Amino acid sequence: MTAFLSTYVNKVDRKKRVSVPAPFRAVLAGSSFAGLIVYRSLREPAIEAFSRDVLDRLNSRRLSRSLEGDDFEQVLLGGGDSQIETIMAMVHELPFDGEGRVVIPPALAEHADIADRAAFVGRGNRFQIWAPEKFQEHQDRAIDALRRRVENGGGA
User: Fold this and answer.
1) What CATH number is associated with residue 94?
2) What's the domain range around 121?
3) 53 exposed, middle or buried (CB, 10 Å; 0-12, 13-18, 19+)?
4) What's the confidence (pLDDT) of residue 88?
């Protein structure tokens, strides 16, 4: 899998449609779903995003662990890994339109404070969608913390 890299800022139209950056769409191109899987970040004022295949692998691993442990009750009734189940209940599938855009659900746009622009931030196997100003503040703090760490001999 190719990684999601770099940061791109795109315009959000009045219908809350935003074009997913072409390099990110290229990473998603081989996925079983032509679009994004997104959910509200639990740590930051951002939206977490990845391919449907990542979600499918996560669910498959969870199922395999249950079957290997002969925990058929968990397979049939659920339970066990409440973190994964919580995330699965939170996700939204955002299909691409013909122009490579997705519609950001209102609750997610509100959580991330996204209005007229969205920053797509590569995070390796996933990416985040931020309000550009909020991301810049976050990034500035992260860079300052990294500099202090390097200056104090902590390495990178």
Assistant:
1) 3.40.1550.20
2) 7-131
3) middle
4) 81
